[in-house]
TrEMBL record, chain A:
<dbReference type="GO" id="GO:0015192">
    <property type="term" value="F:L-phenylalanine transmembrane transporter activity"/>
</dbReference>
<dbReference type="GO" id="GO:1903806">
    <property type="term" value="P:L-isoleucine import across plasma membrane"/>
</dbReference>
<dbReference type="GO" id="GO:0015188">
    <property type="term" value="F:L-isoleucine transmembrane transporter activity"/>
</dbReference>
<dbReference type="GO" id="GO:0015808">
    <property type="term" value="P:L-alanine transport"/>
</dbReference>
<dbReference type="Pfam" id="PF00005">
    <property type="entry name" value="ABC_tran"/>
</dbReference>
<dbReference type="InterPro" id="IPR051120">
    <property type="entry name" value="ABC_AA/LPS_Transport"/>
</dbReference>
<dbReference type="GO" id="GO:0005886">
    <property type="term" value="C:plasma membrane"/>
</dbReference>
<dbReference type="GO" id="GO:1903805">
    <property type="term" value="P:L-valine import across plasma membrane"/>
</dbReference>
<dbReference type="GO" id="GO:0016887">
    <property type="term" value="F:ATP hydrolysis activity"/>
</dbReference>
<dbReference type="InterPro" id="IPR003439">
    <property type="entry name" value="ABC_transporter-like_ATP-bd"/>
</dbReference>
<keyword id="KW-0067">ATP-binding</keyword>
<dbReference type="InterPro" id="IPR032823">
    <property type="entry name" value="BCA_ABC_TP_C"/>
</dbReference>
<dbReference type="GO" id="GO:0042941">
    <property type="term" value="P:D-alanine transmembrane transport"/>
</dbReference>
<keyword id="KW-0813">Transport</keyword>
<dbReference type="InterPro" id="IPR027417">
    <property type="entry name" value="P-loop_NTPase"/>
</dbReference>
<dbReference type="Pfam" id="PF12399">
    <property type="entry name" value="BCA_ABC_TP_C"/>
</dbReference>
<dbReference type="GO" id="GO:0005304">
    <property type="term" value="F:L-valine transmembrane transporter activity"/>
</dbReference>
Length: 245, 313
């Protein structure tokens, strides 16, 4: 499913922290309506790659472009406005606000900006999409773990991004929640959204991703369909060589 | 967004309270009027301080710098033949410009650096003005106008009304929402598409301009101003303490702190004139430890407890 136009592309993206090369010369493209899995052992640089794309960190070298326009020099806010939205590996909500207000943040300031009743209605639609519309007025402190993840996802969706970055969105869920979570992302996929999915859960990778990029110690070691990369000897070695995998 | 019934109620209530406060000079009591001016002055300063610091949690100790800037703008303006009324907007613009410069230089830094920088800035401005006056051979400046205490009081009330309306409008605007998000999680704010520096600088400018205008309005009261008076760091600390005592979570919070604290402070400074700094520090500790969210926090948790009791009853 690599037929659509390229939405996002990384060319030689590199991030150094002092002597450590967390992301090393990454090249890959994401096409429209594609779900790209970014996988690899812990510490292989997946979150750092997302940080480079979302503007949380500036690449040391290389360029990242959105529909052919370089964005790597822009601030995180400008990148968000151009249509790249993300969740965080450790969920980040707005603790003083209600569920609805959290989601409204995405609706008001994101890629497509709304205000007033329109923003609220849109935020409610996003809450319905993630199955949380009945908790709209709850305080985020009262939520279960998966519901906090749902709020964060709804906030991100509310900005109507062109590209969605999900950093281990399924991590830490129990088996029932995991099933719900996979179904939810599947729905986003069926809506034709463009997604980069950082994930450890193999079932999710197999059922959700069109293509995978595998990282190990900052470098891309394989790229292809989930079946291809998961049977690649180098990928297996990278995973088995890591205790956390 | 349209105005709700509650909005109209709070606007009406505020207008009535302001009108009642405006009648204070009718009592003819000079001491009451003098305390009234002090309360009005701190109410405006603390409310506008909290407009910025409430949502962002950045503690600014630069109030004295803006206040002194306004005082000196009026003094120098009048000395050079400007009309008093013309000096107020000039002070507002200068205050906003100074705030923008400070904001550009510091608001990217984390909170602690910001506190230190603003305190340092206030001292720096004071030293520069002192130096400037030494060069020109004067210790201070005379501010001679026909503006009476009653006029100053009413001017402060009008400014207070403007600050409340501004704060209310900001609270309902995208800017106000952006600041709440910034206060909750700046990383989320940035990734949601908010230009966090711009939002913070805009609010700091509102706060700085207001403090400068308060300084302008107070200049005629002092008659003779010098740097140690116009730029006293005590002012910055008092504003912070009063705003925190009231609570910065609501627009009316600082006012609730200003009134009792000003009265208490009047009594303390009269009884222990040499221990004011020590007592100021003590009050700060007491407020931060016992009332971390101020009277507002106390009132709101009281309300919540009442609601819960009703729910269970
Ligand atoms: N802000 C940072 N400063 C220094 N080192 C970092 C920083 N962020 C990540 N790293 C390091 O970069 C490497 C890759 O981390 P990360 O991208 O979080 O991996 P992953 O998400 O694949 O588990 C790790 O060695 C990590 O310790
Ligand atoms: Mg990670």
């Amino acid at each position: 499913m690599t037929t659509g136009p390229t939405v996002l592309s990384l060319r030689g993206a590199t991030k150094r922290f002092g002597g450590l090369v967390a992301v090393n010369d990454m090249d890959f493209d994401v096409t429209e309506h594609e779900v790209l899995g970014l996988i690899g052992p812990n510490g292989s640089g997946k979150s750092t790659t997302l940080n480079l794309i979302s503007g949380a960190l500036k690449p040391t070298e290389g360029t990242i472009s959105l529909r052919g326009t370089p964005i790597s020099h822009l601030s995180a806010a400008d990148i968000a406005r151009r249509g790249i939205a993300r969740t965080f590996q450790l969920v980040r909500l707005l603790p003083s606000m209600t569920v609805l207000e959290n989601v409204r943040a995405g609706a008001v300031f994101g890629h497509r900006r709304r205000w007033g009743a329109e923003a609220d209605a849109h935020a409610m639609r996003m809450l319905a999409l993630v199955g949380l519309d009945r908790r709209a007025n709850a305080h985020v402190g009262e939520l279960t773990y998966i519901d906090t993840k749902r709020v964060e996802l709804a906030r991100v969706l509310a900005s109507e991004p062109k590209v969605l970055l999900l950093d281990e969105w399924l991590a830490g869920l129990n088996p029932t929640e995991l099933e719900e979570g996979i179904a939810l992302i599947k729905r986003l996929r069926d809506e034709g959204r463009t997604i980069i999915l950082v994930e450890h859960v193999m079932d999710a990778i197999r059922s959700l991703c069109d293509r995978c990029v595998v990282m190990s110690t900052g470098t891309k070691i394989a790229e292809g369909t989930p079946e291809e990369v998961l049977s690649d000897p180098e990928v297996i070695r990278a995973y088995l060589g890591d205790d956390d995998a | 967004m349209s105005m709700t019934k509650r909005d109209w109620q709070s606007i009406t209530l505020s207008a009535v309270l302001l009108a009642v406060a405006a009648c204070l000079p009718l009592t003819g009591d000079a001491y009451m009027l003098s305390i009234g001016i002090t309360i009005a002055m701190y109410a405006v300063l603390a409310t506008s301080w909290a407009l910025f610091s409430g949502p962002t949690h950045y503690i600014s100790l630069a109030t004295a710098a803006f206040f002194g800037l306004g005082t000196y703008t009026t003094a120098i303006g009048i000395e050079n033949g400007l009309n008093y009324w013309a000096t107020l907007p000039i002070a507002a613009v200068l205050g906003a410009v100074l705030a923008a410069l400070v904001g550009l230089a510091t608001l990217r830094l984390s909170g602690v650096y910001f506190v230190i920088f603003t305190l340092g800035l206030a001292e720096l401005v004071r030293q520069v003005v002192t130096w400037g006056q030494n060069v020109s051979g004067q210790k201070g400046l005379y501010v001679l106008t026909d503006i009476t205490e009653v006029h100053i009081y009413w001017q402060l009330l009008v400014l207070g009304g403007i600050v409340y309306l501004t704060g209310w409008a900001i609270g309902r605007s995208r800017l106000g929402f952006a600041l709440r998000i910034i206060g909750d999680d700046e990383e989320v704010a940035r990734h949601s598409g908010i230009n966090t520096s711009r939002a913070k600088i805009l609010l700091f400018m509102v706060s700085g301009a207001t403090a400068a205008v308060v300084g302008s309005m107070l200049a005629p009261r002092y008659i003779y101003i010098e740097p140690a008076l116009a730029f006293t760091p005590m002012l910055s600390f008092l504003v912070v303490i009063m705003a925190l005592l009231g609570g910065t979570g609501r627009l009316w919070g600082p006012l609730v702190g200003v009134i009792p604290f000003t009265l208490l402070w009047e009594a303390i400074s009269a009884s222990f004139p040499n221990q004011t700094t020590l007592l100021l520090g003590l009050s700060f500790l007491v407020i931060v430890y016992l009332l971390p969210r101020g009277f507002v926090g106390l009132i709101e948790s009281g309300k919540r407890r009442m609601r819960e009791r009703e729910a269970f009853a």
